[in-house]
């Protein structure tokens, strides 16, 4: 048998990973032929197929819309219509502490595994299937008989569920089940969608169970009905149509959560009016009508499929919706149902399964969160059982906190007074707690900190100015009367009140089942699947009134037929026997492969180029194999390897990795070569590493020596301070190399030795011994060597004993910074860790021979490595309490140190802090922010009262303002040594916004307001001018530039209307020479990326309704005439195409009333009327500047559904147009020009520029990227079922 070359990227996908957070070990058994690598990899694929779009019928669906990975199967195993059978190398491992069994992945069946686990943990489904005996389903023994009707699929499901319940193995196999489906190895490696599998599997089961007592199993558990109604507004006649469903498909795009989607589907009405009337059979004419839908019959188990995968018609590619989509643990469906006399509890459902997809459209993996309804699993490990129950505060020392930002942020807030903290301090405390910042650890996955807090508004409450955050108290379920549409849904059940966490004995727990791996999770972990590339894809709810019998609790044998119980008992005995045999014949050992291309030779030893984790691969191999077998297997795994491959034994020494003997003799067995378990092997070409020939062997083993020598001052003179530095030398180098390395040609070497009495001696190395090697001299790793100039004996006594050792430094250096002359600039003061700072200071004053008066008016301040004076040390502290290290430098400074009730603060003006510009102040910690600000202004000599304070955050940037001026510094957790920034500008009072206002002057046709010529030479505005870069591909010259001129800041109430904002802004416009008659002559936009963004269209609407943030900026556009936009008006920039010139005339604004809908026909009629042209004689297109493309808007772009035979109008707000305010619409007059081209010369140039950048970037990264393979053609998935009718 041969094994193909497997690429490095493929190895990662197959389970052979580089060392990192997770290691997958490859096992090569004694009976396994050489190179059968795939046998070990087959069951450990961490990356499984993604879903695809839903197309298909009951038994066949469009599968494999994503690329197939044929390289994951060896050539001899992969063939057309050949079954993939890989012999297990060892018996399945027993169940782990959860006592639950996973399902092995056959290469691409994670979608099947997730659905099967969901059905398995639906006890009513499992037991209904178990209730069907051999007399109805037949038996496996009769399946090959020609006349026997054996319902093989239900039988295999029964056996699989029995194995999951009773067989003592960590993961069950679905090979027999997929055989019963009629699947080949092609199908098991192909990628499919779990939502479609759910439907096709139910169809197959219904067909398999025809003629049995379980013929209505699917219908009984999952069938529901929806009624669609159309009510005539004239005669009130109701037209009804009922539809069946087994699962509900709900939208994700532009929807905040499940309840919002259900509200849109089953509460909101669709109106037929204007040009879209309904034909009433009773009235026999077109009338206005209202269409709605309601849930009529609810099943015991409700399945919800989320439409996360869509198609972008502009980019012509599939994409996954990763936006936040919430769903509750418990949901009341009564608002979405027809009115009935049923009890309210009949409409309440509990979530019990969430199938999750991780990845994108063309690759990914499924796993499932399961609620253990019958308490079959063990939710706690043995270690956790021995621990007492802990609350949230106790979690701060657990490793899981680092991976879940929600937990650690809760912990931090729970430790704060009133559970409130400024947001900038929250980031700083997070850094202190976990040792890394939010941006480094969480930003890539969760976004900015403030955005994370906003998205979790059910847990955190941000203040109106977003400066502080507090922890919300847990709320109860929202009452039905309060059930309304809301943009921000509440996660119904918070973790701290979850019975699944607090009552371990009575309530079910949740598990994450990821193929073979099963691990316990908490209810709060479900919240992680609201959004992102790893997010919920299918939801399964069960009626809360469904009760389980007491005898089923924690009893996996409950409901299992007797013949399956006997079969599982016999299988468990066989498993125990096989495991015993395996243990006795286990001959595998673990090797650590160090790949030469991942190392470089530095400082005498080998070191990883990137990280140790990415440079070492773990391999478990049969020690009875030969060296040649090992070399050949590694060759097959590393298909990127070129040239010879040499395996050498390597070891870690203090200096790094060193290569010893080369392994030779390909015919020798590994066990004969005395290779130990866990041996490090260096894989290289045997000559060089990174272009450098490396020394090998034990003779030149690198030694790491600690060398002591005198420090050199900045003037080049030797000082009395000893430095200890590590140096690496080969063992066979001469000892004199130390003097050469340190450039001390006349030096003397002393070697540290210990006499029999335990004393420390320094023995000089004779000059003749400098020619000896380090090994001959008896030096070892970490040996201590002293280098001294032969002319300087100040460090040694005559007896050869060292005057002072590095571990015995007992002094601190004190510099005179009192601006008083003294004989000494600095002195060394002997001390111990228990010396009191006051005594140290008095001793320094005496030795510096300064005036005794300084004893009452001086302090000691540490000096950092940059020479900056830090906060004074209180006199009452010991050196240990002050965290002062021996040998550090202190400055003796004038002024008293702060007392225990005082704070020593740095402060400076502005946010750009330059070193050395900070001022210092000592204040009481009970002082208010207002009084502290006054003191700082007085000390800095700054006039006025238009200042506020901000605390410098942990990134050394201006943090959030100290808004609560009456709060004390202690309440705001200001500490000694903090830096406060004096920022010009008074903070707005609560409920007010400080909004920067800009003037927006688009370059357009005459008619827009122009400044008076005599006023253009006035004083420039405070903020100057933003002149944004040219809009990419802008048609003509109109939007080539966007000019924004700063007018000033406005302090406006959040309750103010847009019209009031414009009125206040008009007081700023005279500085530009404009005369604005009224606010109706202004158009207000938000500023986004230095350009107009969102239009504030309704003058009477309050600013708070627009949800303007603290950092929102506004720009005002002057108009020639009054404008009062309604809520349905859209402002578009229209441009008429110039015939024959491939260019456009300047833009003219068009206000389009969308009250009749965002349809293409409505827009075309409006544009035709605006241009005074027949509607059939114009063509219009929307411009996409980022792609330099025009997309024609045709009124004939309508979809015709076969079922309803009714035209469905396009909505221009959605794909592919995404029309919004400010978009550019090109207009073509077909009377003078009838070609289909909307592009301009500027578009051609822009596309060429984009293509050049793309080629350039692809060249830069071509070496790092793997060429993509063409995707395989789409194939259908089917389950073959015999006829039982």
Record keyword descriptors for this entry:
1285 residues; alpha+beta; eight-stranded mixed beta sheet; 28 helices; 60 strands; 19% helix; 27% strand; globular; disordered N terminus
Briefly characterize the structure.
With 1285 residues, the chain is an alpha+beta fold.
- Ranges with pLDDT <50 over ≥5 residues? 1-88, 385-399, 474-505, 796-808, 1004-1024, 1027-1041, 1197-1208, 1263-1273
The major sheet is characterized as: 8 strands, mixed
Kindly report the average pLDDT value: 77
Strand content is 25-35%
Gyration radius, rounded: 39 Å
- Anisotropy-based shape: globular
Put simply, the count of helices is 28
Fraction of residues in H or I helices: 10-25%
Tally of strands: 60
Class based on secondary structure composition and strand pairing: alpha+beta
Distance between the termini: 46 Å
Description:
The longest helix is centred in the middle third of the chain and has 23 residues, at 562-584. β43 (947-952) and β44 (958-961) form a beta hairpin. The chain has 1285 residues and is an alpha+beta fold. α6 runs antiparallel to α7 and α6 (152-166) crosses α20 (562-584). It contains 28 helices and 60 strands.
Question: How is the secondary structure organized here?
Answer:
Layout: H1 8-14, H2 37-41, E1 60-63, E2 102-103, H3 110-120, H4 123-130, H5 134-137, H6 152-166, E3 171-172, H7 175-181, H8 185-189, H9 194-208, H10 217-222, E4 224-232, E5 238-245, E6 248-251, H11 258-266, E7 270-272, E8 278-280, E9 285-287, E10 289-297, E11 301-307, E12 309-312, E13 317-320, E14 330-332, E15 348-360, E16 363-371, H12 382-385, H13 400-403, H14 405-414, E17 420-422, H15 423-434, H16 438-441, H17 443-446, H18 449-455, E18 460-462, E19 468-471, H19 499-502, E20 510-514, E21 517-521, E22 534-543, H20 562-584, E23 588-595, E24 599-602, E25 605-608, H21 612-615, E26 616-622, H22 627-637, E27 646-653, E28 656-662, E29 679-684, E30 688-689, E31 692-693, E32 702-712, E33 718-730, H23 737-741, E34 747-754, E35 760-764, E36 784-789, E37 811-816, E38 826-830, H24 837-847, E39 858-862, E40 889-894, E41 902-909, E42 919-924, H25 929-940, E43 947-952, E44 958-961, E45 979-984, E46 992-1000, E47 1025-1027, E48 1043-1053, H26 1058-1066, E49 1082-1088, E50 1091-1096, E51 1114-1118, E52 1129-1138, E53 1143-1144, E54 1148-1153, ...
Parallel strand pairs: 2-3, 6-11, 23-29, 32-36, 37-40, 41-45, 46-51, 52-59
Antiparallel strand pairs: 1-60, 4-5, 4-10, 7-10, 8-9, 11-22, 12-13, 14-15, 15-16, 15-22, 16-20, 17-19, 18-19, 20-21, 23-26, 24-25, 27-28, 27-29, 30-31, 32-33, 34-35, 34-36, 37-38, 39-40, 41-42, 43-44, 43-45, 46-48, 47-48, 49-50, 49-51, 52-53, 52-54, 55-56, 55-59, 57-58
Helix pairs in contact: 6-7, 6-20
